[in-house]
Amino acid sequence: MPFVTYSPGRGTVRETAYLEGRAEGRAESILRLLEARGLPVPGGVRERVATCTDLALFNAWLDRVLTVARAEDLFAEGADVPG
Fold first, then answer.
1. What is the number of structural domains in the chain?
2. Which ranges in the chain belong to alpha helices (H)?
3. How far is CA 35 from each of CA 10, 18, 69, rounded to the nearest angstrom?
């Protein structure tokens, strides 16, 4: 019997909801960290973070959120990402 790499539930509504929940949680974390650092979070930044669904991009933003001088710097092209 061949090895199957397909996971039950993959591509289903349940998986989609799970991934959306992960994205929502990461967005909330990024926004909370910016606010906890005392950085103003303009509406455009808040909207871009809240509507993102790319988990890899969230990881980059989570790395940057600890060192940026302004919330807008999360999105800077070529920004140094610690680690």
1. 1
2. 13-36, 43-51, 55-64
3. 35, 26, 12
In a domain, 78, yes or no: no
pTM here is 0.69
In terms of residue numbers, what domain contains 61?
13-72
For residue 40, the Cα-to-chain-centroid distance in whole angstroms is: 18
Q: In angstroms, what CA-CA distances link 5 with 2, 8, 35?
A: 10, 10, 41
**79 in a domain, yes or no?**
no
In a domain? residue 60: yes
Summarize pLDDT for 30-40 with one digit per residue, the tens: 999 999 999 99
